[in-house]
């Protein structure tokens, strides 16, 4: 599950429990509910920032394969997988239309859909001493939903980096992710990475941006993924006129 803590203008959303944080219907619904409540609070508190992190060795190991494979038949397993692929879409959509800056803090591994969840944030901050980014689908012989690739094209500018991550199954550590332009920064230790994220969060919060404008500009920055997730842009306005 997850918890939300407010520290000044920072909302800290934490995936709780010392496990792999598999993205199953229960966890995804828990995150969705937290984001919905947070969105309402953020509109009443201009200059807020979301920091998403986790407890334990993993940020998230992706869609819950053990739960999928525990189904009673191959057909039932496919239905579970398709259900989660559809359920994951509104979670990403909620993050992309959130009216505040977002930072993913990775204290450990982010694999498959867990990496997609991290990339959906505006900034990604990693540990330099532990944890990797990893798309495991090729090694599992699995294909990818169209919106996974659209997000990757939106967030990973280099085609050679996308090739290495998706077609070589490269496991990318923190400092390498920074050099590749995937992560904002990498820091030593659990405390170091969270302290860096809080510093960045406070810098962003100090700008006191208009939330509606921030969300609309974000959506216009990533039109392909937003289109696939059903997000539409609103009429252009200037809040200070």
TrEMBL record:
GO terms for cellular component: peroxisome. It catalyses: a (3Z)-enoyl-CoA = a 4-saturated (2E)-enoyl-CoA; a (3E)-enoyl-CoA = a 4-saturated (2E)-enoyl-CoA. Belongs to the enoyl-CoA hydratase/isomerase family. The lineage of its organism: Eukaryota, Viridiplantae, Streptophyta, Embryophyta, Tracheophyta. The keyword Isomerase applies. One of its GO terms (molecular function) is delta(3)-delta(2)-enoyl-CoA isomerase activity. Pathway: Lipid metabolism; fatty acid beta-oxidation. PANTHER family: ENOYL-COA HYDRATASE-RELATED (PTHR11941), ENOYL-COA HYDRATASE_ISOMERASE FAMILY PROTEIN (PTHR11941:SF75). This is Delta(3)-Delta(2)-enoyl-CoA isomerase. Transmembrane segments: none annotated. Signal peptide: none annotated. Its EC number is 5.3.3.8. Pfam families: ECH_1. One of its GO terms (biological process) is fatty acid beta-oxidation. InterPro entries: ClpP/crotonase-like_dom_sf, Enoyl-CoA_hydra/iso. Keywords: Isomerase, Lipid metabolism.
